[in-house]
Amino acid sequence: MNELVREWIEKAEGDARTAEREACVTDGPNWDAVCFHAQQAVEKYLKAVLQKEGIPFSKTHDLAILAGLLRPTYPEWATWSDSLRKVSLYATAFRYPGETASKEDAIQALEIMRQWRTRLQQTLEISDGA
Questions:
Q1: What is the pLDDT of the chain when averaged over all its residues?
Q2: How many domains does one find in the chain?
Q3: Which of 6, 37, 65, 105 could anchor a disulfide with 15, C-beta 3.0 to 4.6 Å?
Q4: Is the pTM of this model over 0.90?
Q5: How far apart are CA 71 and CA 18, in angstroms?
Q6: 130 found inside a domain
Q7: How big is the CA angle at 66 (ends 97 and 44), to the nearest 5 degrees?
Q8: CATH number at residue 102
Q9: How far apart are CA 64 and CA 25, in angstroms?
Q10: Residue 102: left if φ>0, alpha if ψ -120 to 50, beta else—which one?
Q11: What is the DSSP string of 1-66?
Q12: Which pLDDT score is estimated for 48?
């Protein structure tokens, strides 16, 4: 596996672990952080696949844009794009004052992350956690 692909996967796994860990906190969980790290995990996994496929991409947090670059190679992903749009908002929505994630937002972000993580790991032909 290409070293840069491996690095994207390692970064994605770090975000996935952080999201999962924070979601288990019983005293004052940071739902904003769960949502942010769930989004980051999916973003970095998508970038790993783009790197693997040799498809150039810009610096963006928009998961639908990243997945769109992969649509010619993986057309079946188009049916799951709504989930990407939803979790894509978490890159910035809860990072600043004025908006706060709820437990329900965090649960939804984790579910989407887990689905895409599994899908992207299969695409990269890696097991859980690389």
A1: 92
A2: 1
A3: 37
A4: yes
A5: 29
A6: no
A7: 70
A8: 1.20.120.330
A9: 30
A10: beta
A11: --HHHHHHHHHHHHHHHHHHHHHT-SSS--HHHHHHHHHHHHHHHHHHHHHHHT----S---HHHH
A12: 97
pLDDT in tens, the chain (130 residues): 899 999 999 999 999 999 999 999 999 999 999 999 999 999 999 999 999 999 999 999 889 899 999 999 999 888 877 888 888 888 788 888 889 999 999 999 999 999 999 999 999 999 765 5
Q: Measured between alpha carbons, how far is 47 from 52 in angstroms, rounded to an integer?
A: 8
Quick one: tokens of 105? 């937002």
Query: What does the buried/exposed string (b/e) look like for 70-103 if buried means 16 or more CB atoms within 10 Å of the residue's CB?
Result: beeeeeebeeeeebbebbbbbbebbeeeeeebee
CA distance 2 to 54: 11
